[in-house]
Sequence to fold (169 residues):
Amino acid sequence: MPDTLTVFTVRDAVIDLMRRLRMTTIFGNPGSTELAMLRELPGDFRYVLGLQEAVVVGMADGHAQATRNAAFVNLHSAAGVGHAMGNIFTAHKNRTPLVITAGQQARSILPYDPFLFSAQATELPKPYVKWSCEPARAADVPAAIARAYYIAMQEPCGPVLVSIPADDW
Fold:
């Protein structure tokens, strides 16, 4: 019997999934709600930092079109999604597959209307995303991202969004 127990986290499952889906380039403009996911990215991952969310989505749109695979975009909370809406609209019109994740405040403080909280995070990007969700439990995050990928890649392709509370990672 081994001396140590290997803990497989939600983050580990998502990183493994992203590798299998060939989405090892992350486009983003991070904030506090995404830090746990972005710390110590594996060496085979690349993080492309943009100074503003619209630029991030535009870069991801071009990358997805060039690679013919969904691009992974990480935005900071509802504010980041709001800033990105112009290019989310463009990706929708281009039929570009984007898997967009948006940070949400920690589940434990959601009832208290915290700063940067979005009560309807999944509604904000509609109607310019094909699908959006905020998983009910942290354990559901990897499956939500997998579903998002397959929906984004299904013709007609297009952007999707998963809202992820900060403490799910």
